[in-house]
């Protein structure tokens, strides 16, 4: 296990059963790295009076499990755009190696739409990005997600119109990146792991289109970010939203006032800020029966983790890298 700043409780890294689910020692090590990243984020945010809180599966885990959901492998943090921009400003001088604060500005090509705090001595590679491993230059260490929440217009028609155009712009810049990077000397495979000739041909044709048009993903990405912030001058809007992940307008909205009403909750052996009115938020996200565990795949399902080696180790050995 790599060195961490936090002190782990005795036996924390051992495999165990939680809610009838086997949490492996590997995932425990991933959790440990993520908790260390969280502790470092917490340190910086306290220093600069930056408000943040748990969101999504991390919020649910804090309330229902007092820690990680047993079958989850990530940690989600939310903050209003003003606090997010403040964090982005101080991050370069505050986060020192092995910690790396990743945005499109600090690490061109990552293009997530939100920030990630990563540990550069570890590995967390999305399996969808394996084919691009020898082309990607951005940091791919184990991470925690940090999402900015932006103002949402009051009018429902404006809300829908804004969301739809943001989703289209999101898909556009991702499409350009894929078309640029996906050309390699491997075949596409279907869900059963068999070679898919048609998909491979389509992939090469999309890359050919990119070579002809010379599309610049950065233009589409910048337009995407500006659209997300379009209504931020109207700072008193009732609702705010995380536009980074297109999972439906109803699921990405939060009440602005909730970010000013936070309490601390247990999370493994640490404390994490959560919405005081967590019940309303969790019902909106997961339904009225959110306290009843239901095993589902993580939204990062399909990540190759190695908490012992840096992602650079695998990039150097890409041609023989098989997951």
Keywords:
single chain, 323 residues, alpha+beta, two-stranded antiparallel ribbon, 18% strand
Q: Cα-atom Rg, whole angstroms?
A: 20 Å
Task: Describe the oligomeric state of these chains in a short phrase.
Answer: single chain
Secondary-structure element pattern, one letter each? EEHEHEHEEEEHHHEHEEEHEH
Query: What does the average pLDDT come to?
Result: 89
How many β-strands, per DSSP? 13
Please state roughly what percent of the residues sit in beta strands, choosing from under 5%, 5-15%, 15-25%, 25-35%, 35-45% or over 45%. 15-25%
Distance between the termini: 21 Å
Provide the helix percentage.
25-40%
Give the overall silhouette.
globular
Written account of the structure:
Helix 4 (156-181) packs across helix 5 and helix 4 runs antiparallel to helix 6 (217-228). The chain contains 9 helices and 13 strands. The protein has helices at residues 25-47, 56-64, 81-94, 156-181, 197-213, 217-228, 249-252, 278-286, 311-316; strands spanning 16-18, 21-23, 53-54, 76-80, 99-102, 115-119, 123-126, 142-151, 239-241, 253-255, 262-267, 270-275, 303-306. Helices cover 37% and strands 18% of the residues. Strand 11 (262-267) and strand 12 form a beta hairpin. Strands 3, 4, 5, 6, 8, 9 and 10 form a 7-stranded mixed beta sheet that branches. A two-stranded antiparallel sheet has the order 1-2. With 323 residues, it is an alpha+beta fold.
């Amino acid at each position: 296990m790599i060195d961490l700043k936090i002190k782990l409780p005795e036996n924390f890294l051992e495999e165990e059963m939680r809610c009838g689910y086997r949490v492996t020692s590997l995932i425990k090590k991933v959790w440990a790295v993520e908790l260390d990243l969280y502790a470092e984020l917490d340190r910086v945010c306290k220093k600069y009076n930056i408000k943040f809180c748990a969101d999504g599966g991390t919020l649910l885990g804090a309330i229902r499990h007092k820690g990680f959901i047993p079958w989850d492998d990530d940690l989600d943090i939310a903050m209003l755009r003003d606090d997010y921009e403040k964090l982005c400003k101080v991050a370069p001088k505050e986060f020192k190696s092995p910690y790396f604060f990743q945005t499109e500005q600090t690490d061109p090509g990552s293009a997530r739409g939100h920030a990630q705090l990563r540990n550069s001595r570890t590995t967390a590679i999305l399996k969808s990005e394996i084919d691009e491993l020898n082309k990607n230059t951005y940091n791919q260490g184990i991470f925690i997600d940090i999402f900015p929440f932006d103002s949402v217009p009051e009018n429902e028609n404006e809300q829908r119109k804004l969301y739809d155009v943001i989703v289209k712009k999101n898909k556009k810049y991702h499409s350009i990146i894929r078309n640029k990077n996906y050309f390699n000397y491997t075949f596409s495979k279907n869900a059963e792991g068999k070679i898919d000739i048609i998909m491979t041909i389509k992939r090469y044709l999309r890359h050919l289109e990119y070579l002809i048009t010379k599309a610049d993903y950065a233009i589409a990405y910048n337009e995407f970010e500006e659209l997300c912030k379009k209504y931020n001058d109207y700072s008193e809007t009732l609702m705010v939203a995380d536009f980074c992940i297109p999972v439906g307008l109803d699921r990405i909205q939060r009440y602005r006032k909730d970010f000013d009403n936070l309490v601390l909750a247990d999370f493994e052996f640490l404390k994490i800020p959560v919405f005081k009115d967590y019940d309303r938020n969790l019902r909106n996200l997961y339904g009225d029966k959110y306290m009843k565990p239901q095993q589902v795949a993580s939204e990062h399902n399909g990540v190759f983790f190695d908490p012992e080696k840096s992602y650079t180790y695998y990039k150097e050995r890409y041609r023989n890298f098989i997951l």
